[in-house]
Write a structure and sequence with these properties.
Strand content: 15-25%
Bound molecules: ligand LCLJCK34, 4-methyl-5-hydroxyethylthiazole phosphate
Radius of gyration: 27 Å
CATH superfamily of the largest domain: Ribokinase
Pfam family, one: TMP-TENI
Shape: elongated
CATH class of the largest domain: Alpha Beta
Mean pLDDT: 74
CATH architecture of the largest domain: 3-Layer(aba) Sandwich
Cofactor: Mg(2+)
Number of helices: 22
Number of strands: 22
Keywords: ATP-binding, Kinase, Magnesium, Membrane, Metal-binding, Multifunctional enzyme, Nucleotide-binding, Thiamine biosynthesis, Transferase, Transmembrane, Transmembrane helix
Strand order of the largest sheet: 15-16-17-18-19-20-21-22
Helix content: 25-40%
Biased composition (Polar residues): 37-49
Organism: Dendrobium chrysotoxum (Orchid)
Length: 691
């Protein structure tokens, strides 16, 4: 009883990892079967059939929580509808059989973990649950999954068991290793997520093109799906090449087979307004509608997806322009406006979110993607990386989105993180030479190459945070007898959207100490904090990034040292510097000094005209700096250049009696300006305006 029956069969070598459910005693794993036969075996049968809920069970008595396995819990735990409700961030649950909760009382409460909306796990004995509240305005789509997850965490706390977020990819194999299943597994690995794989088709492929395609029998794809889904807790299913309409039908059937079934399949979700919605529960689904390879070879016809069975199950679908066009009957998509139209039309097929990728948009120097969540459009811009090594970007992007969702990230952040990952991978791999053809693969695991970067990337930089950029100054703090932490806190409370520690007169040890304290403050307010010039200090305090000047560490090296997850800003006065900053992998540029200032000596001003010229040439978002105050802030923002995202200010905030009051004053001038722009343009935009 004390030994985990999963040991020796667990896909991960780590014996503490809880990935697979154990088979019931007496059932053998499906080894040695002929895949070609396509015959459904015992593994293809319903996971619950023939398996007693109590099989492999554990009794409460005499069992220490350290012996709890997820599968035991899944079969034996019952959460009743007698009393279950969400209060802000906590859920209270009553159990039918309290003894199953080990040391817990018959009713216990635990925090709802953020992001578990997407961590949907089967909960085989759960009942219909009543939810009375929207959580953070977000639709709670899988309460039973959340409850199971949280109860599991509660029961196994300190047990030594842990689980990895899990993506199942259903896709084709690329013998060249750049795209398909191979790219999916590497993208998940880079995002630190477990990846199981169901292969739909085997392609003979290299950097020149696709030489052959051999698709597997639909019933053998079904068998692979059931093998994984009946045993493992899959958070997100990501689909790639689905070569036939029949295969899509099989996939949809099986996706629906593995949610909580029947009555248990439905979550009655009562909104605050007491309207009823029925929501089906199954793993989240990311659909990459693979139709054509990068080399132009057809991998599956549009008919496969236009069957429209899969899209209603999709949490997100990620077509490129060709695929979006094919899904919409071959319409031409030539402009950003066309992309918005396509996103909306594909959304109407039932996908909850749509990302139309504009990498191939003619005449655009940027890669612009359109994200549509059914209500709002977001234009996601990124630099177009000039490289031949782009094979597998679509598969990678979709898999990375799936991986972020599996970890619990919200949808838009998952998309942004995936874009940032692909951008960094392309940048790191632009000189890579694998194969002789025109479409090279890239290196997904570039982060492993650099010891310093051995961490998962964070969510990507949001340029809207440049709106009111507070840059500290030790001299001014001394003058007004403020500590740096007081200055930082006051500016955030006044509405600063990003902070930079620009401490020119402190010793390193003191700087690191202060930076650590400021990081804690900034984290608690969810405001990014950057360090001026000092990459070592940024690393030491795990800051969100750095701001560097033209005579500091070159941005390209800074990126190598800091990795893709950190924000890098570069000071630029000219279009050439702006272009270089972009090519070096910076996230934004600081442009100035716009007006004369006493804060930085010997720094020629470029004026509003110079600022405008740099903005127009820059592929990166821009923040203006130098002599900006309440008196001239309007003239800066009136330039109306779309990538001018805000102002960076030192003395107008910190050389003042009340930092909070002055920050508030500038913030309100900026937000009035933004609101006015929105009203005048009447455009939907994604900028967040914080009062
Ligand atoms: C947002 C922002 N833009 C420009 C600068 C100037 O940085 P740098 O050129 O490194 O000059 P110093 O700040 O080191 O004097 C900045 N700090 N922030
Ligand atoms: C750091 C820096 N870089 C260009 S101008 C400047 C100083 C900006 O300070 P202030 O906002 O007080 O003019």
């Amino acid at each position: 009883m004390g030994r985990s029956p999963a040991s020796g069969r667990n896909p991960a070598s780590d014996k503490n990892l809880a990935i697979g459910k154990s088979l019931a005693p007496g059932r053998s794993p499906a080894t040695g079967k002929n895949p070609a036969s396509g015959r459904n075996s015992a593994t293809g049968s319903s996971p619950a059939s023939g398996r007693s809920p109590m099989t492999g069970g554990c009794s409460a008595s005499g069992r220490s929580p350290t012996k709890v396995r997820r599968q035991d819990l899944g079969f034996r735990m019952q959460i009743s509808p007698i009393h279950s409700e969400t209060h802000a961030d906590r859920v209270t649950v009553a159990a039918f059989n309290p003894s199953l909760f080990f040391n817990h009382p018959d009713s216990f409460s635990f925090p709802v973990p953020i992001g578990l909306t997407y961590a949907k796990n089967r909960f085989e004995r759960s009942q219909v649950l009543l939810v009375r509240q929207k959580r953070n305005g977000d639709r709670v789509r899988s309460l039973s999954g959340m409850l199971e997850e949280s109860a599991y965490a509660a029961v196994t706390q300190g047990s030594g068991l842990r689980r990895l977020a899990h993506v199942l990819t259903v896709a084709g194999s690329d013998s060249g290793g750049g795209a398909g299943i191979q790219a999916d597994i590497k993208a998940c690995a880079a995002a630190c997520v477990y990846c199981s794989s169901v292969i739909t088709s085997v392609t003979a492929q290299n950097t020149i093109g696709v030489q052959g395609v051999y698709s597997l029998a639909e019933n053998f794809v079904a068998e692979q799906l059931r093998s994984v889904l009946s045993d493992m807790q899959v958070d997100v299913i990501k689909t790639g090449m689905l070569p036939s309409p029949g295969m899509i039908t099989v996939l949809c059937q099986i996706i629906k087979e593995f949610p909580v079934r029947g009555l248990w399949l439905l979550l009655i979700y009562i909104t605050v307004t007491c309207t009823f919605n029925l929501v089906a529960l199954h793993a989240a689904v990311v659909v990459d509608p693979v139709m054509v390879s990068t080399s132009g070879d057809v991998l599956s016809g549009p008919s496969t997806l236009s069957g429209k069975e899969l899209l209603p199950l999709a949490d997100i679908v990620t077509p490129n322009l060709k695929e979006a066009s094919a899904l919409l009957g071959g319409i031409s998509l030539d402009t950003v406006g066309d992309m918005r139209f396509a996103a909306k039309s594909i959304h109407a097929f039932g996908a909850r979110n749509v990302l139309v990728k504009g990498g191939d948009l003619p005449g655009s120097s940027d890669a612009i993607d359109i994200f549509f969540d059914g209500e709002q459009f977001h234009e996601l811009c990124g630099p177009r990386i000039m490289t031949r090594n782009t094979h597998g970007t679509g598969c990678t992007l979709a898999s990375y989105i799936a991986a972020e969702l599996a970890k619990g990230a919200p949808m838009l952040q998952s998309v942004q993180a995936a874009k940032s990952f692909v951008k960094s991978a392309l940048l790191y791999s632009k000189d890579l030479m694998i194969g002789n053809g025109p479409q090279g693969p890239f290196d997904h695991l570039f982060m492993l190459k650099n010891q310093l970067n051995n961490y998962a990337p964070k969510w990507s930089f949001n340029a809207n945070s440049l709106l009111l950029y507070a840059v500290t100054d030790s001299r001014m703090n001394k003058k007004w007898a403020r500590s740096i932490t007081e200055a930082v806190k006051a500016s955030i409370e006044g509405g600063a959207t990003i902070i930079q520690l620009r401490e020119k007169e402190v010793e390193t040890s003191e700087f690191v100490k202060k930076a650590v304290d400021c990081m804690a403050i900034c984290r608690s307010y969810h405001v990014p904090l950057l360090i001026n010039d000092r990459i070592d200090v940024a690393l030491a305090c795990d800051a969100d990034g750095v701001h560097i000047g033209q005579s500091d560490m070159p941005a390209e090296l800074a990126r190598k040292i800091l990795g893709p997850g950190k924000i890098i800003g570069v000071s630029c006065k000219t279009p050439t510097q702006a272009m270089k900053a972009w090519a070096d992998g910076a996230d934004y540029i600081g442009c100035g000094g716009v007006f004369p200032t006493n804060t930085k000596q010997s720094n020629p001003t470029i004026g509003l005209k110079g600022l405008e010229t740099v903005c127009l040439a820059s592929k990166l978002p821009v923040v203006a700096i130098g002599g900006i105050s309440a008196g001239n802030i309007q003239s800066v923002m009136e330039l109306g250049v779309p990538n001018l995202k805000g102002v960076a200010v030192v003395s107008a905030l910190f050389d003042q009696e009340s930092v909070t009051t002055e920050t508030r004053r500038l913030k309100s001038l900026l937000t009035v300006r933004l609101k006015l722009q929105c009203m005048v343009l009447g455009l939907l935009h994604s900028q967040q305006i914080d009062e």
